[in-house]
Structure to design on (305 residues):
């Protein structure tokens, strides 16, 4: 468990023009040299810049893990929350102020292990937020144990004779679970990843982007050398992202070719705040009057604290 840590973007002068450096955080990333998460951070910063989103219009929320340190490395509003609970916090933030672009980030352990319950229910509710998982197929922060996406037979500190468990496949899981934008990127193809993230951020509904982000320290199986010759963009294969059955079939492919790109997208389902009249008709809750006196609000806050 961890205390919730909040960050706020640096205040920009009204006349300031956006550039990619606008989104650089005050803290330099402390990931291992060569970690794929550097590329994911850069791709996200580029995507925000190319979309013209100002730092105060974006909130990045994470759980616990190497990749979950990302909110501290980007100049937007940010929250570093509890292990596996980023989507629960992100849902609350989005429903409180659905003018914000809310982006949750984390790893495969944080998202598909302890956070698997929240993953399923955020998808089925079609909450309007973006979820980026830096999938390194290992527990890196705790120095190299098997994670929910570690391949069968993989030798790690916790499975020295080989992993006996079947891994989670997040792409078919997301499609069945109700995500309305399902994509997979690779940190070694940053330009391609930027386009996937731009599409996810602008999508109305739950957008999930699973990113192969190699751990250069503890995962000696799923390396850049492993992925580089295998990953093949779906955009170059005339893939129909509106066909859920074909998208699931492509999601199961794993071998000499591993598809990346936009697997599935649908735009006909309303997002959660559009279905709730209280949220849809009155605007963001964060900007509405409380309807009680200042004295009453102080008393309530004092009681809760």
């Amino acid at each position: 468990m961890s205390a919730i840590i909040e960050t706020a973007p640096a205040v920009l002068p009204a006349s300031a023009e956006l550039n990619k450096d606008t989104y650089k955080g005050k803290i330099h990333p402390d990931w291992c040299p060569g970690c794929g998460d550097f590329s994911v951070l850069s791709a996200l910063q580029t995507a925000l810049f190319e979309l013209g989103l100002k730092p105060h219009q974006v909130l990045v929320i994470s759980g616990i893990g190497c990749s979950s340190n990302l909110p501290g490395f980007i100049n937007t509003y940010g929250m570093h929350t509890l292990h596996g609970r980023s989507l629960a916090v992100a849902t609350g933030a989005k429903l409180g102020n659905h003018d914000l672009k809310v982006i949750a980030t984390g790893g495969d352990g944080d998202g598909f292990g302890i956070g698997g319950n929240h993953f399923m229910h955020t998808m089925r509710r079609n909450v309007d937020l973006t979820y980026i998982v830096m999938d390194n197929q290992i527990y890196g922060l705790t120095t190299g144990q098997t994670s929910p996406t570690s391949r069968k037979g993989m030798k790690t500190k916790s499975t020295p004779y080989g992993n006996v468990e079947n891994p989670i496949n997040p792409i078919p899981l997301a499609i069945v679970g109700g995500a309305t934008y399902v994509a997979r990127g690779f940190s070694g193809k940053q330009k391609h990843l930027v386009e996937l993230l731009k599409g996810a951020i602008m999508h109305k509904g739950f957008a999930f982007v699973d990113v192969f982000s190699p751990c250069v320290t503890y995962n000696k199986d799923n390396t850049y050398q492993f992925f580089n010759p295998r990953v093949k963009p779906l955009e170059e294969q005339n893939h129909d992202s509106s066909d859920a059955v074909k998208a699931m079939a492509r999601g199961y492919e794993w071998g000499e070719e591993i598809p990346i790109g936009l697997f599935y997208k649908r735009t006909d389902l309303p997002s959660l705040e559009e279905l709730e009249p209280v949220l849809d008709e009155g605007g963001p809750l964060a900007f509405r009057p409380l309807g009680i006196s200042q004295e009453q609000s102080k008393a309530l806050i004092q009681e809760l604290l």
The longest strand covers residues 258-265. The first helix runs from residue 37 to 51. Residues 229 and 257 are 8 Å apart (CA to CA).
